[in-house]
């Protein structure tokens, strides 16, 4: 297979055509993200679709939604991203807890998608030891 490797410090993520293959090192993070996708299936048009998963390999196969946005784009549309996060909380009860510019992608139709739900929780608590400069809590 001809994969494009995406930079990730915790997981191995490969992008091929319309799919993202996300392999988790942590069983806990795999279960958290898988649970989020299964519990919110078809709720939101701004979250990638989960196509499949493989528990033994800790693999999620997700919709490829675009390229990561810049910090400036994030700052310019911060209120919009806060609104998207509030919709997730209101409809599903999940808090992303790691929402910043590196966890938002945009497609060629200028549609935004929130990604990386491995730290999400039903509790709203900051997961960062040091706060990030531009982070939605």
Overview of this protein structure:
By secondary structure, the chain is α+β, with helices and mostly antiparallel strands. It has one domain (4-114): Transferase(Phosphotransferase) domain 1 (Transferase(Phosphotransferase), domain 1). It is 25% helix and 24% strand. The protein has three helices and eight strands. The strands form two sheets. The protein has a five-stranded antiparallel sheet with strand order 1-2-3-5-4, covered by helices on one side. A hairpin with a 4-residue loop joins strand 1 and strand 2. The chain is globular. Residues 1-9 have low confidence and may be disordered.
What's the gist of this structure?
With 137 residues, this protein is α+β, with helices and mostly antiparallel strands. It is 25% helix and 24% strand. It has a single domain, classed as Transferase(Phosphotransferase) domain 1 (Transferase(Phosphotransferase), domain 1), CATH 1.10.510.
């Amino acid at each position: 297979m001809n994969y494009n490797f995406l930079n990730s410090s915790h997981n191995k993520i490969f992008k091929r055509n319309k799919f993202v293959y996300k392999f988790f090192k942590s069983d806990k993070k795999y279960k958290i993200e898988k649970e989020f996708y299964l519990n919110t299936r078809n709720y939101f048009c701004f979250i990638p679709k989960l196509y499949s998963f493989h528990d033994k390999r800790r693999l999620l196969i997700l919709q490829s939604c675009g390229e990561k946005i810049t910090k400036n784009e994030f700052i310019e549309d911060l209120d919009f991203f806060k609104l998207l996060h509030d919709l997730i909380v209101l409809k599903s009860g999940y808090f992303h807890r790691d929402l910043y510019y590196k966890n938002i992608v945009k497609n060629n139709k200028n549609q935004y998608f929130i990604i990386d739900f491995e730290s999400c929780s039903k509790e709203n608590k900051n997961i960062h030891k040091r706060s990030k400069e531009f982070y939605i809590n």
